Design the sequence.
């Protein structure tokens, strides 16, 4: 039986999603827990987004196959009983044959949080990057529009992604103020490595007045990685949700 | 010169405010940092609220005296350079002679956050207690009104407070829903040990339907500690602000 699992995690103490032999990763602790529940049989899971070290999730999705057929609420409880407190299984359901968390995904939603207070708030420090304001939000909004649409994001791509094309369709890139935080919401059909953090790196430069919106737009069009600002810190990034086709009946 | 310092901290990795010889406390790390800035001379600070282990602050206030006269922004920067990331100095100003963070305070504002989602959110776990809903918010609001006014809070007092009277004036006790969180705001002229957490313990019992509002009101009036529900967890509590007389000119 194939299962689809929705997960939340605090990425602070994980070396990212992807299993590594010597590091604590989200995939690693999940596979370990599922293996214990399967009487020691190896279980391999696929994650929709291979989040980097320090990146969080409110709605990561993973798929895996188990021989034993479980009642979903029972498996969910058993899993949370074995998992550490910084990763939680939120929802579990049987999936259609062939379902794969990454390959079946139609799109993802990421959120980036900037703490713009003069001094970093210790209660936000794990989940927000500290960029003391003031930031020019309207310049940031103008820069954000450059990302929306079907674009080649080669300028924003970190090396090591190993993907065939750097063209992606971004359907939403919005900046809003909330208390002493600036929040950026990004949705796309897919993301390159560090793409959201590179977007936010560019938006912050626009907000500080360090780069003109036209300059950023030019670097994007020129697919020029060296001209693009450095990616923002991992701690501000959260994978909010993954979108799949509606089940057909 | 007497200084008044506003502080924020993540209480998770502190054994509370008050200095202890062998434990990491907020007062301890602050005094250490100030002592370094004073060339080794001992500095004693007073905190407005002696928060317990695991309790957070967005606006704790401390007072201390230094022989050297500093420019406040310079002292603030030097202090943050020495402090660990989970405690931050937010604001510093010279205070009038005789100012004492605790004795001069007119009142305090605490906030308590409950995570009411079915599964605890790992991104809230440091700053919210997990109480899976549904909670009857209108019953909680009705119970909250019992606290407002000048009351004897002996039923809600933990031992070891060493105070002369358990009468306090509560000016605000409000419960509101925000996403999958229930937030309780409490303001009073002063608080007994674990008073807010005991209030929230009572409110949760009302919200669950485990205690009738009249039963709670009766236990409060009877000053009966044994009849009062257990205090809610420390991690949900934050000292938001401390109120002082307006400076006279």
Sequence:
């Amino acid at each position: 039986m194939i299962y689809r699992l929705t997960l939340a995690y605090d990425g602070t103490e994980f070396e990212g999603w992807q299993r590594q032999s010597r590091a604590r990763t989200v995939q690693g602790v999940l596979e370990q827990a599922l293996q214990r529940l399967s009487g020691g049989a190896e279980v391999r899971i696929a994650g929709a987004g291979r989040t980097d070290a320090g990146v969080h999730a409110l709605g990561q999705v993973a798929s895996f196959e188990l021989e034993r057929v479980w009642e979903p609420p029972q498996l969910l409880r058993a899993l949370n009983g074995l998992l550490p407190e910084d990763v939680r299984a939120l929802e579990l359901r049987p999936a259609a044959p062939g379902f794969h968390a990454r390959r079946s995904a139609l799109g993802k939603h990421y959120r980036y949080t900037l703490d713009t207070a003069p001094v970093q708030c210790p209660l936000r420090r794990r989940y927000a990057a500290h960029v003391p304001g003031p930031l020019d939000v309207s310049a940031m909004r103008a820069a954000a529009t450059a990302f929306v649409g079907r674009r080649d994001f080669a300028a924003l791509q970190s090396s090591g992604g190993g993907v065939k094309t750097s063209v992606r369709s971004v359907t939403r890139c919005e900046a809003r103020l909330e208390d002493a935080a600036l929040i950026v919401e990004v949705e796309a059909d897919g993301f390159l490595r560090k793409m959201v953090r590179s977007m936010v790196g560019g938006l912050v430069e626009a907000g500080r007045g360090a780069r003109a919106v036209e300059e950023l737009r030019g670097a994007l069009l020129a697919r020029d990685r060296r001209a693009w600002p450095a990616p923002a810190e991992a701690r501000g990034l959260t994978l909010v949700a993954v979108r799949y086709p509606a089940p057909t009946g």
